[in-house]
Amino acid sequence: MLENLAFAIIIILGLMLIGLLVIRPALTTARGGKILAFIAFFILPIAATGFGTRIHLEHSKSTQFCLSCHVMEPYGKSLYVDDAAYVPASHFQNNRIPREKACFTCHTDYTMFGDLNAKMRGLSHLYIYYVKGAPPKLTLYEPYKNRECLHCHANARSFEERSPHKEMRDQLINNEMSCLACHSTNHNVEQLDKARMWKGPNA
After folding, report:
1. Composition of the chain by helix, strand, coil, percent to 5
2. Cβ(183)–Cβ(150) under 8 Å?
């Protein structure tokens, strides 16, 4: 919220200074006027670009943003399936992931450049959608890695002490066996018309 306010102040201040310099260009003849022009035409636009980029990148992590594309609507609907076997639904409904960033939480790479990689994939989604057209069936670019699951579940008591996790812990950590081998019901959008739906926390 403070970032949005700072962004608005920078934009308004920049426009006011530019307006002043357009109306009174003679101000730039003095040293102070040159500094004012430098701030108005160089410093404030850079600051506005930085704040704007950060705000939009944060917004692009939101579930609302991901589901604003109509081809993603069924995936959003699958988060409300009233069946604990649906892995995304059980995580979403039980607050195991932040609901406002549900898509990004599970589909980013938890690496040094994970956020950047996720954004680059997002740009490629836009390219495919608007230039090539959405494919009939959406698939991941590469198999889902256990790393994304273990980012939250590793060291959790429910994971470390429960069978069969504790017996196959090393295999899961080394990605020799996929978490999805057992937890195989994901979004399953083809079956949504047969599924019972959860009404949500405010129902």
Report:
1. 65, 0, 35
2. no
Phi, psi for residue 201 in degrees, rounded to 5: -65, -25
CA 99 to chain centre: 11
Give residue-wise pLDDT tens across range 68-83.
888 899 999 999 999 9
Which two three-digit tokens encode residue 68? 């604003």
86's tokens: 């649906």
Place 108 in a pLDDT band, splitting at 50, 70 and 90: confident
The pair of three-digit structure tokens given for residue 165, joined into one six-digit string: 């996790």
Question: Cα–Cα distance between 136 and 19 in angstroms, integer?
Answer: 51
DSSP state of 42: I
Rounded CA-CA distance 140/121 in Å is 10
Give the Cβ contact number of residue 130 at 10 Å: 9
Q: Closest Cα to residue 9, out of 66, 42, 52?
A: 52
CB 173 within 8 A of CB 165: no
Give the Cα-Cα-Cα angle 183, 151, 83 (nearest 5 degrees).
30
